[in-house]
Design a protein that fits this description.
Keywords: Hydrolase, Signal. One of its GO terms (cellular component) is endomembrane system. InterPro entries: Amidase_CS, Amidase_dom, AS_sf, FAAH2. This is Fatty-acid amide hydrolase 2-A. With 538 residues, this protein is an alpha/beta fold. The protein has two domains: 31 residues; 420 residues, Alpha-Beta Complex (Amidase signature (AS) enzymes). Helix content is 39%, strand content 13%. The chain contains 18 helices and 15 strands. The strands form three sheets. Strands 1-3-2-8-10-9-14-15-13-11-12 form an eleven-stranded mixed β-sheet, sandwiched between helices. Strand 4 and strand 5 form a beta hairpin. Helix 4 runs antiparallel to helix 5. The C terminus is likely disordered.
Length: 538
């Protein structure tokens, strides 16, 4: 079908913008090199290298006070945040007061350590929260200028559950505008930087959370994921993250809310530096729902079936997978086979080539009530005033728009997106869903790249906007996925892999992540630039 004059004009405008951006990004290469010369200070306080569970245990046993732990993390945030711009609003004074109350509670407790562990498993442990979630007294703008003065009157259910478990929030972290982009950048808080290379992105939409965790300024955090918004930041920042089986962890209390079929794709989950903390965090964040996951059941990795898919089959919309990521995944396969005595079956799954088309089609589909999802331009509206994408694009060219290029681009894409998926794409989704569910069953783990590239340079995702499909496809399929770091690349950037399990089998990919952390070293301090810290071998 021939394009209309308007459509041809829009295509020309978008191509021109991409060319301008490409030139701009090339011209800033010198600046990116200077960014690499700036390294975060290494961690010196040993409290910052303990897991959340270890900290909770030491606090309960009075080996260290909660005030000491909270102060250590406040000091680290104050040390690194001016460099990476991850925490956008803190509550340090309130956190120290709450830590003091925790220490007093422990002094007065007569029931013993076991009672405290059962009732308050995270007592005295600090955590951070993605700004898209409601945290009482903190901003909840999601990077939208029109929500600049929105303050949360209460806590999102997930935040409330963590606080009820004794954890102490330190503040909220940056995200992409309206949580729908690969880079955490908005005109309200600015851009968040990767702790391993300041010229690189921290990911999105939970990029601030990933950045502060990767920098050692937090030990556990709250993120959300509708297309990879937990897993991409965790990958780029060298930490662990888990997208649970849908329907386990409550999604309420975050902005923007999901609508249409998106309600079944959005997942709230844990982000952390240490794999040991994933399981207890998930238990707390899911409340009574986690009983359905049988998380306390033992997992014998030697009895599992492992599969490895090295790429999506060659989508023309998506970049080829970086060879360092291919080799890192290969090393995982070799290690599993050598140490566990299992056979890892290498597969090619042809339907994965249509991951972006499947994700886009399902995200735009109406819900069970027949109502279409709220459009991105509707969410961007300022107090009911409609946003006109082409007008915003014009203003952006002169630096006058309140919105980022990524957000404006999404509204332009929406103009031509059909709410009725093609029968071909629906068939690919149906076949992929059936084949993967049968393949994984209750004892299968799939290894799949976290992203085609290592952490990209700032703004480069504008030139490769569909690369998130490596994570987004599993939101549509409703499968639990754990992002696992695998050491550092030759450039000193995090490597990683996704561990995918069957529905309700979260414990399997979580157990695999714990095993691979021991084998490959897990999170690395970005402040230490030694050759040894960059080893990728188990």
């Amino acid at each position: 079908m021939a394009l209309t004059l308007f459509e041809r004009l829009l295509v020309w405008i978008l191509r021109t913008i991409v060319r301008i951006l490409d030139c701009f990004l090339s011209l800033t290469a010198t600046q990116r090199k200077s960014d690499r010369s700036v390294r975060l200070p290494p961690i010196t306080n040993p409290l910052l290298t303990a897991t959340a569970m270890q900290l909770a245990r030491r606090i309960r046993r009075k080996e260290v006070t909660s005030v000491e732990v909270v102060q250590a993390y406040i000091d680290r945030i104050q040390e690194v945040n001016p460099i990476i711009n991850a925490v956008v609003k803190d509550r340090f004074s309130a956190a120290l007061q709450e830590a003091s109350q925790v220490d007093k509670l422990i002094e007065e407790e007569t029931g013993g350590e076991d009672v405290l562990e059962d009732r308050l498993p995270l007592l005295g442990v600090p955590f951070t929260v993605k700004e898209a979630f409601a945290l009482q007294g903190m901003p909840n703008s999601t990077g939208l200028m029109s929500r600049k003065f929105v303050i949360s009157p209460n806590d999102a259910p997930t935040v409330a559950l963590l606080k009820r478990a004794g954890a102490i929030p330190l503040g909220v972290t940056n995200c992409s505008e309206l949580c729908m982009w690969l880079e955490s950048h908005n005109h309200l808080y600015g851009i968040t930087r990767n702790p391993y290379d300041l010229g690189r992105i921290a990911g999105g939409s939970s990029g601030g959370e990933g950045s502060i965790l990767g920098a050692g300024g937090s030990v556990i955090g709250v993120g959300s994921d509708i297309g990879g918004s937990i897993r991409m930041p965790c990958f780029f920042n060298g930490i662990f993250g888990h997208k649970p089986t849908p329907g386990i962890v409550p999604n309420e209390g975050q902005y923007p809310p999901a609508s249409g079929q998106q309600l079944g794709f959005l997942c709230t989950g844990p982000m952390c530096r240490y794999a040991e903390d994933l399981m207890p965090m998930l238990k707390i964040m899911g409340g009574s729902n986690t009983e359905r996951l049988c998380l306390s059941s033992e997992v014998d990795l030697k009895t599992l079936r492992f599969f490895s898919v090295p790429h999506d089959g060659g989508s023309p919309l998506v970049s080829p997978v970086d060879q360092q990521l291919v080799q890192a995944q290969k090393r995982v396969v070799e290690h599993l086979e050598a140490e566990l005595g299992v056979r890892v079956q290498k597969l090619n799954i042809p339907q994965l080539k249509y991951s972006f088309q499947i994700w886009g089609a399902m995200m735009a589909s109406p819900g069970k009530d027949g109502k279409p999802p709220t459009t991105f331009s509707e969410l961007m509206a300022d107090r009911g005033r409609r946003v006109w994408p082409l007008w915003e694009l014009f203003k952006w060219m002169f630096g006058l728009s309140d919105h980022t290029m990524a957000a404006i681009g999404l509204t332009l894409v929406e103009m031509f997106q059909s709410a009725r998926p093609s029968s071909f794409i629906l068939k690919q989704r149906e076949t992929l869903q059936k084949d993967l569910e049968e393949l994984l069953g209750t004892d299968g783990v799939l290894l799949y790249p976290s992203h085609p590239h290592l952490a990209p340079h700032h703004h480069h995702p504008l030139l490769t906007p569909f690369n998130f499909s490596y994570t987004g496809i599993f939101n549509i399929l409703g499968l639990p996925v754990t992002q696992c770091p695998l050491g550092l690349s030759k450039e000193g950037l995090p490597l990683g892999v996704q561990l995918v399990a069957g529905k309700m089998q979260d414990r399997i990919c979580l157990a695999t992540a714990v095993y691979l952390e021991k084998a490959f070293g897990g999170w690395r301090d970005p402040g230490k630039g030694s050759t040894a810290s960059r080893s990728t071998a188990p």
